[in-house]
Design brief:
This is Alpha/beta fold hydrolase. The chain is of the alpha/beta class. The protein has three domains: about 1-135 and about 180-250, Rossmann fold (3-Layer(aba) Sandwich), CATH 3.40.50.1820; about 140-175, no CATH class; about 305-390, 2-Layer Sandwich (GMP Synthetase, Chain A, domain 3), CATH 3.30.300.20. The protein is about 30% helix and about 25% strand. It has an eight-stranded mixed beta sheet with strand order 1-2-4-3-5-6-9-10, sandwiched between helices. It has a three-stranded antiparallel beta sheet with strand order 11-12-13, with no helix packed on it. A two-stranded antiparallel sheet has the order 7-8. A hairpin with a 2-residue loop joins strand 12 and strand 13 (about 285-290).
Length: about 400
Amino acid sequence: MKKLEVSFTNSESKELKGVLELPSNATPENFVLFAHCFTCNKNFHAPTNISKSLASKGYGVLRFDFTGLGDSEGEFEDTNFSSNVEDLIAAANFLKEEYTPPTLMIGHSLGGAATLFASKEIESVKAMVTINSPSNLSHLEKHFESSLEQIEEDGQARVNIGGRSFNIKKQFLDNLRDNQDGAAFEEIRKALLILHSPQDEIVSINHAEELYKSAWHPKSFISLDGADHMLSNKVDSEYAGTVIAAWASRYISRPEVPELETDHEVMANLGADGYTTQITAGKHHLVADEPEKAGGSDLGPTPYQLLSSGLAACTSMTIHMYARRKEWPLDNVETHVNYSKKHAEDCENCEDEKAKIDTFERQISIQGDLDEKQIERLMQIADKCPVHKTLSTKGQIKTRLKDS
């Protein structure tokens, strides 16, 4: 995948910094705008992992720092809920001018409420996702409960939020109260997905219920069971990204993927970040990766798993084609393959580690009303599989440098 550092200005002429996560080898079918949680930034676990997961599915994702947070200009204490909404609109305009208008918006926690408000002003958005988001904004005041009196009297107070110290001004509280209805669904007629953890101790699951009850159809709810508010467990945020990609495909038009513009059947493109590799095979897109223990992100099968998959698929297809041609009652073929390096059975140098050869262990399950001779014949046909033949013979790989 490709990761681009971008910047744009908001309505107050403050420069906002963002990251654009893109598929490595294809133009994104749709662009997504991500709003991070209250006092967070674009580089937190949830926005980073969800963005990468969506990019691996072909989406372009923009995540950025709200005014006064992360790398963006401005002072956090001078911002409010409305300014977050305005920042999102500025980000959408940036995508419209430089790439393609966003069709999907995702908001985490308070970012979800800001997303709902901003979506009313962004016509291109067809679907929205909230993650552990509030149904109203009154719950935020509990973060300042011990300082409310000082804020009211002095106009501001220093408060501790998530282990960090921030200056909160009275205008922030006033703005929250003016925008109390975090849902504001009366004017929103766009598809909504609500992701929420029943174990969320910051924003209770009751907020998800209120959001769902207030929303117009089409609306969906999926539980992030076991996740905390921040989605600090990588598995939870990657799961959220996968679910969002699948759900959004029902509401966002997906143009036909063009044929691969190359004189080769397959192209694998690896960006500068990790081992996640975008693969284009004709009109089809898939992802390869390495497991986490090998330094990868485990977003797809390993190259050897893909190789084993080719053998397994070809074996099942070959057996099925033969049985169909013979009009035999074959119901199902299931091929299991493991790859490893082992010594050959007739190895003369078995004590030498370098004497090991590539070994594919294959087990085939054949189901149907077949007699022993038919099954025996189908097992023989398995060895006729073209991929089997390729792996069993010594081939050649011709490599040359491709012009940029």
